[in-house]
């Protein structure tokens, strides 16, 4: 039970500090300003839950492919490396709002292109859509699919995904899944409800420094812990 709690706590803290202020956080905030919030929240959360489960499965399988000693040392190096990387980004990168501006510009471009292309066809299709499975057609809407795809591919290969894999290799995977999903839900809900005003007020430097310190603490703890047989 203690290992589940430890995995849950580590995963929750790591996820919150990794996800607040990143590109997918900003994307969720901006999408929610232009579209129904529940569709954006559903799409983003679905992508993050799928990504978390996939990452934990990879981490859980790693000790079966490599020895426990190797996975332990790799996890330690990952945490220390990501900690130093996060500290470097927080200290030396310029302009806290650059990432927000970049995401907003890309979504603006996509939104204008989609708006121009569908303006005429929407008038013709609206009447027909009302009679065709209203719940399913609304739930699996282009908005939900856009939120899902932006979030999923935005997180793929991100350091938070790799850190989740490393954490699952060294901690109880069930606890890591629960902590990761709860952390993702908290961050995404805050982004969707708070909108761009919340996103623009977040200090990326403070979040980056906090996340970097947390990764280094996890790395030191992993280094000092004995390898489980």
From TrEMBL:
<feature type="transmembrane region" description="Helical">
    <location>
        <begin position="69"/>
        <end position="87"/>
    </location>
</feature>
<keyword id="KW-0812">Transmembrane</keyword>
<keyword id="KW-0472">Membrane</keyword>
<feature type="transmembrane region" description="Helical">
    <location>
        <begin position="174"/>
        <end position="194"/>
    </location>
</feature>
<dbReference type="GO" id="GO:0032472">
    <property type="term" value="P:Golgi calcium ion transport"/>
</dbReference>
<dbReference type="GO" id="GO:0005794">
    <property type="term" value="C:Golgi apparatus"/>
</dbReference>
<feature type="transmembrane region" description="Helical">
    <location>
        <begin position="206"/>
        <end position="224"/>
    </location>
</feature>
<keyword id="KW-1133">Transmembrane helix</keyword>
<dbReference type="InterPro" id="IPR001727">
    <property type="entry name" value="GDT1-like"/>
</dbReference>
<dbReference type="GO" id="GO:0016020">
    <property type="term" value="C:membrane"/>
</dbReference>
<feature type="transmembrane region" description="Helical">
    <location>
        <begin position="135"/>
        <end position="154"/>
    </location>
</feature>
<protein>
    <recommendedName>
        <fullName>GDT1 family protein</fullName>
    </recommendedName>
</protein>
<dbReference type="Pfam" id="PF01169">
    <property type="entry name" value="GDT1"/>
</dbReference>
<dbReference type="GO" id="GO:0015085">
    <property type="term" value="F:calcium ion transmembrane transporter activity"/>
</dbReference>
<dbReference type="GO" id="GO:0005384">
    <property type="term" value="F:manganese ion transmembrane transporter activity"/>
</dbReference>
<comment type="similarity">
    <text>Belongs to the GDT1 family.</text>
</comment>
<dbReference type="GO" id="GO:0032468">
    <property type="term" value="P:Golgi calcium ion homeostasis"/>
</dbReference>
<feature type="transmembrane region" description="Helical">
    <location>
        <begin position="39"/>
        <end position="63"/>
    </location>
</feature>
């Amino acid at each position: 039970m203690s290992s589940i709690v430890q995995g849950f706590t580590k995963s929750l803290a790591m996820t919150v500090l990794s996800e607040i202020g990143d590109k997918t956080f900003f994307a969720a905030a901006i999408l929610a300003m232009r579209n129904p919030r529940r569709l954006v929240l559903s799409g983003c959360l679905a992508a993050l839950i799928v990504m978390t489960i996939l990452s934990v499965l990879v981490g859980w399988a790693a000790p079966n492919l490599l020895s426990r000693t190797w996975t332990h040392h790799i996890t330690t190096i990952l945490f220390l490396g990501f900690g130093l990387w996060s500290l470097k980004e927080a200290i030396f990168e310029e302009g806290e709002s650059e990432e927000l501006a970049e995401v907003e510009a890309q979504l603006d471009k996509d939104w204008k292109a989609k708006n121009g292309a569908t303006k005429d066809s929407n008038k013709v299709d609206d009447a027909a859509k009302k009679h065709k499975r209203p719940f399913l057609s609304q739930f699996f809407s282009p908005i939900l699919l856009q939120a899902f795809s932006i979030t999923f591919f935005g997180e793929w290969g991100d350091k938070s995904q790799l850190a989740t894999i490393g954490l699952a290799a060294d901690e109880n995977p069930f606890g890591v899944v629960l902590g990761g999903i709860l952390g993702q839900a908290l961050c995404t809900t805050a982004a969707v409800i708070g909108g761009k005003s919340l996103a623009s007020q977040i200090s990326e430097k403070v979040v980056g420094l906090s996340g970097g310190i947390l990764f280094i603490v996890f790395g030191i703890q992993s280094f000092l812990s004995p390898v489980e047989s």
